[in-house]
């Protein structure tokens, strides 16, 4: 672009570029070159797309196997992140998701190493789930509630063990069988089974 003419609109641009440090100009050229190389490599995008499809296929196979394993035992369901999510969604329809939330809070609580955090977390969990008329009170007997209250005075990672076990048993005996019979879970198993059949027919 020539800018020898007086009043040339490019004159300001040229002067601006001339004022820039040489290092900046060289970096700009380098970036332009790199972009040019990437734009002329369509096979790169193809490889990325293929890789994503393979990972997606692998995830689908894993999730199909997971879904079918949830009916083997309540433990299998709780071991699966997607299983816990599906079960939590089901419990919401029954307005009893606080039981699972309490169980999960206890699992997280047991991983706490700091004694100061242990005490504050214990009080928070007790106030939210265990005490009488708690915002999200779980269904446990009076005796277990009192034992848990006493445990707070010297909070250890085991202070909710009894209450957690009672809540877990309640879910396993009551909510879990209904979850397995629910329309949502039946639909998931059908999809998982059909994916498994489709996979076998292509091998």
Automatic annotation (TrEMBL):
Entry keyword annotation includes Glycoprotein: no
InterPro entries associated with the record: RGS, RGS_sf, RGS_subdom1/3, RGS_subdomain_2
Membrane topology annotation: Lipid-anchor
Keywords: GTPase activation, Lipoprotein, Membrane, Palmitate, Phosphoprotein, Signal, Signal transduction inhibitor
One GO cellular component term: membrane
UniProt domain RGS: residue ranges: 73-189
GO molecular function, one term: GTPase activator activity
GO biological process, one term: negative regulation of signal transduction
Highest taxon above the source species: Eukaryota
Compartments (UniProt record): Membrane
Main location: membrane
Signal peptide per UniProt: 1-19
CDD domains: RGS_RGS16
Pfam families in UniProt: RGS
Gene3D superfamilies: 1.10.196.10, Regulator of G-protein Signalling 4, domain 2 (1.10.167.10)
Protein role: Regulates G protein-coupled receptor signaling cascades. Inhibits signal transduction by increasing the GTPase activity of G protein alpha subunits, thereby driving them into their inactive GDP-bound form. Plays an important role in the phototransduction cascade by regulating the lifetime and effective concentration of activated transducin alpha. May regulate extra and intracellular mitogenic signals.
Official protein name in the record: Regulator of G-protein signaling 16
Gene source species: Nyctibius grandis
Highest classification ranks of the organism: Eukaryota, Metazoa, Chordata, Craniata, Vertebrata
Gene name as annotated: Rgs16
